[in-house]
Amino acid sequence: MDEPSQSMANMWPDLIKKAKDGGLNAIETYVFWNAHEPLRRQYDFSGNNDLIRFIQTVKDEGLYAILRIGPYVCAEWNYGGFPVWLHNMPGIEMRSANNVFMNEMQNFTSLIVDMMKKESLFASQGGPIILAQIENEYGNVISSYGDVGKAYINWCASMAKSLDIGVPWIMCQEDDAPEPMLNTCNGYYCDQFTPNNPKTPKIWTENWTGWFKNWGGLDPKRTAEDVAFAVARFYQNGGSLQNYYMYHGGTNFGRTAGGPYITTTYDYDAPLNEYGSLNQPKYGHLTQLHNILRSMERTLTYGNVTSTDYGNSVFGTVYSIDNTSSCFFGNANVTSDATVNYQGVDYNVPAWSVSILPDCKTEVYNTARVNIQTNLMVKESNQAEDEPASLKWSWRPEINLEQTLVQGKGQVSTGMIVDQKVTNDVSDYLWYMTSLNVDKDDPIWTDDMSIRVNATGHILHAYVNGEYLDSQWATYGIFNYVFEKKVKLNPGKNQITLLSATVGLQNYGPKFDVVQSGISGPVEIIGRKGDETIIKDLSLHKWSYKTGLHGLDNKIYNSDSKFSAQWNSDNLPLNKMLTWYKTTFKAPLGEDPVALDMQGLGKGLAWVNGNSIGRYWPSYMAQEDGCSTEACDYRGSYYSSKCDTNCGQPTQRWYHVPRSFFQDGVNELVLFEEFGGNPTLVNFQTLRVGTACGSAYENKDMELSCQGRPISAIKFASFGDVQGTCGSYHKGTCAGQNDALSIIQNACVGKETCTVSASESTFGVADCTEDISKRLIVEAAC
Ligand code: GAL
Predict the structure, then answer these.
(1) Does 4 have pLDDT greater than 50?
(2) Which ligand 1 atom is the nearest neighbour of the CA of 268?
(3) Ligand 1 pocket, residue 136 CB under 6 Å
(4) What is the mean pLDDT of residues 77-102?
């Protein structure tokens, strides 16, 4: 892990506040074992790792907390949150009834529990923590562990119970959770979930608001309508508690991104985007839903339930107590809208939606009718500087390269090829070095010799006798490959140096912890002569190893590094491997979040004032296929690739730099470029709402906001059956008679927010046919 800093912790209060404003009453978090116990029995709860401070911040906002200790957490987090030193403990078998593992797991879990108790943070002590979690989705993999799996989960339950926290423990995705553990659900929909114990409340620990991204993969999107549908249906069908995963996914700073190949961004299409800004309409549409559900708390909690099946996947549910009742009308049909007649009144329920009537008379919410603006964000150049032209770059090659490339000098050596995890994962990089003596009499000596390396990923750079040969890396989901390249050997001694780089260790799957990493071998020299092939296996040679890079070891990304003076300002090399680049800049003005545009670079690591902003890899293009040109249809079951975007673009071009990473005056950006790239296009940008598209169905209010800026112009406004999407609206077959554009201009331009009622009394009669739900649609420039 990179050194923790105070910086990210500074973002917590604002994010938690926004979650509260979004109508949430609890914050769920994982606990990351590898962050807190980076070395065995050496703990880190400082800065960003200050778990107590996090829970206190949640408490200070008046919210509950759910503590998912795990300590296996998955989470697209490096190695699922396990410290890699665990893997190297003799005799260990992870997530299994194995004494070595259980001892470590119990040690860490009780440490966390004790810390919480000491600060009185459990609800049983008057604190905010209402639930705690042990293990994570073990039920998904238990069958691969045989009988030991069952013994392990029983042990987890009794160990957790013995910690006596005074609030319930949950085990998500664990069908046979032993009592008193509560089995909970994770997924896109959990309305059909039934816990194994009839006394267990129906709890949804992970409602996936979108999905994560891999290098080479696309940007998953999930519509606001579909997430709202899933939530409303869950509560219609007796749900007690649901948690968004993610509500804010943020950024995998440092080397925290999991694997294989999880990107630095963990935006997740969550209601709060990677930068902490509102992802509209998702944030607002769900906020309205939360507020309505909470207004029905009494009927939902204590009411008697009656359900009616109207046929064709249409269900009505009434919760009533005393003289009050609340109704849900749900239509799970994918294509046909429904009319529900309840107590003599007809209610239209669109396909794949739920209507909520808190008093069983007036529909106040339908999951498919969005009365919230859509935001389109824009990126602006850094107003404090004229970037990228003003950025003056200096550079230096990686330190002491000749030691590995020419001398093959490592820190340890052994007679075999090792898994990269032996290094305890202190770096992405491991050098594998060996030498080979051949003379011209050797049977392998031909004019057609190659080196062949079996690798299990992720990235391999090969050098022979100090000369770069070639590189290869796993692409598009194939994580084992064979590297083969022609070589010219010298008679006598030849130095073979292979640099392996990992891009996040496996974090999910049965026995994910023993998935190989680095160079698996064999490594062979192949000589071909006519139809004869001679193979020399180097796997059992003496191999020397060096972990990491000298530049990383010496932290040359910090301005106080002893190498800080040794940078060149002339002859800036472009597309040169293993090169360090440095520049200074002024922080962008204002308060808007900041992104670093890494266009032109290959792959590597980046730091702003010594804070790691994560791995970058803009040269890796997302796959070409799988994006639709049509707007995403919210109807029908969601799956992670249903509404993908970003085909054929860099997987990740922009990287979040938290404002708190900056300082007044001069700031420093340092890059370690592994593949070779061109830094001259790199620049800082700020993000803000560029276009806001207001939307309101008839007789609802259309609220429009440029979020802290005045509305500068209205580009489109119409009340009727508007077609298209934000950015490309056009009038439909019918529209109110009055001039909608000037009405909205008068009401909104120059203001930060405005509210206009979507009604015929404002916009005039719209001659729409009966089956059309009229909407006011506005497109504003911010
Ligand atoms: C779940 C897991 C989470 C996360 C999620 C996908 O299976 O519990 O930790 O990995 O999938 O984002």
Answers:
(1) no
(2) 12
(3) yes
(4) 98
